[in-house]
């Protein structure tokens, strides 16, 4: 949890972003979250890399932010556009669960999924059924 949701809006230099990005290695996240990754899971992860636009829900509002998202090596990397060289933020996914929102979440949109690890909850919305299923 080195990068909070609010940090996506921070303006750091490219050099700062590069050094921070290196801290989110799989080994670092496994150690921090006291978990491990099997060789089979690692092999599947290498073969399953995705990228595309997703909408990220702001914590305390009804607003959504459109971000280019790259999923690779058990981590989501967030960019403003597909042309950016460095991510705005990253979210290591080890230990997170993926589910659909429940009524108590108060989200009345299609193609929304929920990522949760302990008290950290994020909502993302795809722009189509195809993207949502991917």
From TrEMBL:
Stored PANTHER family: FERM DOMAIN CONTAINING PROTEIN, FERM, ARHGEF AND PLECKSTRIN DOMAIN-CONTAINING PROTEIN 2
GO MF annotation, one: guanyl-nucleotide exchange factor activity
InterPro entries linked to this entry: PH-like_dom_sf, PH_domain, RAC1-GEF
Pfam family, one: PH
Domain PH: 47-134
Gene name in the database record: Farp2_0
Membrane-spanning ranges: none
Superkingdom of this protein's organism: Eukaryota
Chain intervals with Basic and acidic residues compositional bias: 7-18
Organism encoding this protein: Alaudala cheleensis (Asian short-toed lark)
Region (Disordered): 1-21
UniProt-recorded name of the protein: FARP2 protein
